[in-house]
Amino acid sequence: MAPPAMRWFAVAALILCLLLPPSFAIYCDEDDCYDLLGVSQSANASEIKKAYYKLSLKYHPDKNPDPESRKLFPKIANAYEILKDEATREQYDYAIAHPEEVFYNTARYYHAYYGHKTDARAVILGLLLVLSAFQYLNQWTRYTQAVDMVKKTPAYKNKLRALELERSGGTMNKKKGHKQIDKSGKMDEDFSKELELQINGAEKPSMWGLLAVRVLLLPYTLGKLLLWSGCWFWRYKVKRAPYAWEDACYLTRRCLRATLDAWRNIGEVSKPNP
């Protein structure tokens, strides 16, 4: 069975495909480029050119003052620009023959017309945003799954009952209290915050941990690191000052190679004295 994140992504992709117009519509909107010029799909370059010149004499705004011609002629000119070039005509014919390949046909179109104008910074920023979105979705899915698993354990339910008994002064009816806990989502949420569940392998996602945010804050992070390193070198290497409490804890945790969560679980007696 696929994870929830993958199922949601598949549903979103399906909805996006249904909402997107056919890929060949990006060339001549809802019209057919060949129909606009009045030629068949097997017409050669000479026939396409003759058809365009004939339509230009009829619908060009300088030749025809009709307001409808002002709307139709840009479409004719656009169709001619697409079909007169062999490369773009080949792409258009492929899009007609394979309308199901929406993303591939769209990418080819924009690469042909706008590829040389694409800003690399915009591409990198878009890639970071997409990766950050997947990162946040993955972290949130893991976190919710871990929370659901913890809430199903007997230890969690016993803590909820004990906390409710403590709040009510020990006079709560057990059956009634159990029903209230099961039915009240807000109460369960408040209890979860008070219990401060430590879930290994799954942390609640934060915007500050996303890849895009970290890249944007990289200059600030590097500057802060350089400032901290300079202060450390001046205080403990040059001035030979005694280690502060926080710095002694940092060195001890580094020597023990302990994670931050494991270090927090160590008793105060085991930590170094200031």
From TrEMBL:
PROSITE patterns: DNAJ_1, DNAJ_2. It is found in: Endoplasmic reticulum membrane. It holds the Pfam family DnaJ. Keywords: Chaperone, Endoplasmic reticulum, Glycoprotein, Membrane, Signal, Transmembrane, Transmembrane helix. One of its GO terms (biological process) is protein folding. Gene3D superfamilies: DnaJ domain (1.10.287.110). One of its GO terms (cellular component) is endoplasmic reticulum membrane. May play a role in protein folding in the endoplasmic reticulum. It is a multi-pass membrane protein. It comes from Macleaya cordata. Residues 32-96 form the J domain. SMART domains: DnaJ. Residues 1-25 form the signal peptide. The chain crosses the membrane at residues 207-234. This is DnaJ domain. InterPro entries: DnaJ_domain, DnaJ_domain_CS, DNAJC25-like, J_dom_sf. The keyword DNA-binding does not apply. PANTHER family: DNAJ HOMOLOG SUBFAMILY C MEMBER 25.
